[in-house]
Amino acid sequence: MKAVIVEDEVFASQALENLIHEVDPAIGVIAVLQSIDESVEWFRNNPKPDLVFMDIHLADGSSFAIFDEVSITCPIIFTTAYDEYALKAFEVNSIDYLLKPISKRDMERAIGKYRNMSATPSVGIDPEAIQKLLASLKQNERTYKTYFLVPEKDKLVPLAIIDIAYIYIDAKMVKAITFAGKTCYLDQTLDELAALLNPANFFRANRQFIIARSAVKDLSMWFGSKISVNLTVSVPERIVVSKARVGEVKNWIAG
């Protein structure tokens, strides 16, 4: 049995693949796709798999954009961080989902449903159901910041949220550091920023740091059963997560 994963976060796709194999070793992951364009290209040029695991939010946009370019007729299990109220849309449209962080029990339920569906000839995804699902989710989607206006000399310039690697407090000043190494000053407190940023993409690591999931390189064990988060960019000091929140940060990184 062949499956494809559409997920832009490496940690999340690896964790998902491991969980799939743990629940059902007969399912082999033949491709991991990280963007809308890559997904469209793959589905256009390869035989359809038996099953697709698809994250709704990708770095370059909503994965629903894939369906505007190519027809996917095999069963799909969406992975999402939407709240319970918004998820009612999946039930209405008979499309299954896994709520992040994904548990083994949830994976067993979803794969069990797929097994039952696959016993029925010509099981697939109705394009009209996809459009209804998208409309339902948009109605219930919470809006998070996509840009900040930051001072630069005598101007205010837009700073894209996707460009931020981490935010931290330095001498009572709140600074956003981009992947390019640029420092931008923000007016909000870390508490205020944590409420404005999508929690699927940003994590309040401690009193000093908010980190972007796309900036996480790996984790190191630290004293007292704490975790040190290592980023792909340089940081002014070690980012340590308390013992009480180790499970939380692991689940967040794994999607």
Structural class: alpha/beta
Strand order of the largest sheet: 2-1-3-6-7
| Element order: H for helix, E for strand | EHEHEEEHEHEHHEEEEEHEEEEEH
Q: Any idea what the shape is?
A: globular
Main sheet summary: 5 strands, parallel
Q: What portion of residues is helical?
A: 25-40%
Strand content: 25-35%
- Report how far apart the termini are: 24 Å
Describe this structure in words.
The chain has 255 residues and is of the alpha/beta class. Helix content is 32%, strand content 32%. The protein has 8 helices and 17 strands. The model has no long low-confidence stretch (mean pLDDT 85).
Topology:
Elements: E1 2-6, H1 10-23, E2 28-33, H2 36-45, E3 51-55, E4 57-58, E5 61-62, H3 66-69, E6 76-80, H4 84-92, E7 96-99, H5 104-118, H6 127-140, E8 147-152, E9 155-160, E10 164-170, E11 173-178, E12 183-186, H7 190-196, E13 202-204, E14 209-212, E15 216-222, E16 226-231, E17 239-241, H8 246-253
Parallel strand pairs: 1-2, 1-3, 3-6, 6-7
Antiparallel strand pairs: 4-5, 8-9, 10-11, 10-14, 11-12, 13-14, 15-16, 16-17
Concise description?
The chain has about 260 residues and is an alpha/beta fold.
Keyphrases for this structure?
alpha/beta; globular; 5-stranded antiparallel beta sheet; 32% helix; 255 residues; 5-stranded parallel beta sheet
